[in-house]
Specification:
The chain is α/β, with parallel strands linked by helices and 238 residues long. It is 50% helix and 8% strand. It has ten helices and six strands, in the order αβαβαββααβαβαααα. Strands 1-2-3-6 form a four-stranded parallel sheet, with helices on both faces. A two-stranded antiparallel ribbon has the order 4-5. The protein is globular, with a radius of gyration of 20 Å.
Length: 238
């Protein structure tokens, strides 16, 4: 069920690096999991057969999970691609997506308290910024399942679909993003997601700089021309 291991994190970081090297070829990224779960969390059976009470899980996280997740987050942030995650369970990886799509049967779970650990992989940074302090604390302290519909209500995810049509709807949205003005989409995700502590004036300046870049792109010229000619725009991501 796609439990997280050091090898898995390293492979994900390598894949994101490879995608970053192919910006001209890849215009949207979909992150999903094979099988019936997106991710069930850390692989507790694969930590070098360590026995409870005889290892320091916190110390083990620093050279492994923490650094690998930081690398994945950095790769995602630097990418010019819109990204979507379609989780069945598991939280931190899904929350790194620009848009999060869920099957109706799915749920989110901060299960750390059930084994006497604290949330990791960046969820304590991501959750409060998405759903607020009260709800993020409740999720972490209580360790209860958060159903997809409730996650949608709370603003944790973007869309919920019936299980049978999830991938079909995901790919529709992916193609819509991929066929869009990806230069502008890249700038949008960076100015909206990248500087949450900006002052209003700082954000206005960031918008100005980003608009200048977008306005010099070929996609902007195509968008205006298509509007005047009353036809669909054919964006090329340039």
């Amino acid at each position: 069920m796609n439990a997280v291991s050091i090898d898995m994190l390293g492979g994900l970081a390598e894949a994101l690096d490879e995608i970053g090297d192919k910006k001209a070829e890849v215009r949207c990224l979909v992150l999903t999991g094979a099988g019936r779960a997106f991710c069930t969390g850390a692989n507790l059976q694969g930590r070098n057969n360590q026995k409870p009470g005889r290892s320091n899980a916190g110390a083990a996280l620093e050279p492994g999970f923490t650094r690998s997740c930081a690398a994945c987050a950095t790769c995602t942030a630097r990418s010019s691609l819109p990204s979507m995650a379609r989780p069945g369970a598991g939280m931190s990886f899904a929350l790194m997506g620009d848009m999060i799509l869920c099957p109706r049967s799915s749920y989110f779970l901060q299960a750390f308290r059930r084994i006497g650990l604290v949330p990791d992989c960046g969820s304590t940074w991501l959750l409060p910024r998405l759903i607020g302090k009260a709800r993020s604390v409740e999720c972490s302290l209580m360790g209860e399942r958060l159903p997809a519909e409730k996650a949608l209500e709370w603003g944790l995810v973007n869309r919920v679909y019936d299980d049978a049509v999830l991938m079909e709807e995901t790919m529709k949205l992916a193609h819509e993003l991929a066929n869009g003005p990806t230069v502008a989409l890249s700038l949008i995700r960076k100015i909206v997601l990248g500087k949450p502590d900006n002052s209003f004036e700082d954000q206005l300046n960031l918008e100005f700089e980003s608009q200048r870049i977008a306005g010099s792109a070929e996609d902007f010229k195509e968008g205006v021309t298509a509007f005047l000619e009353k036809r669909p725009a054919k964006f090329r991501g340039k």
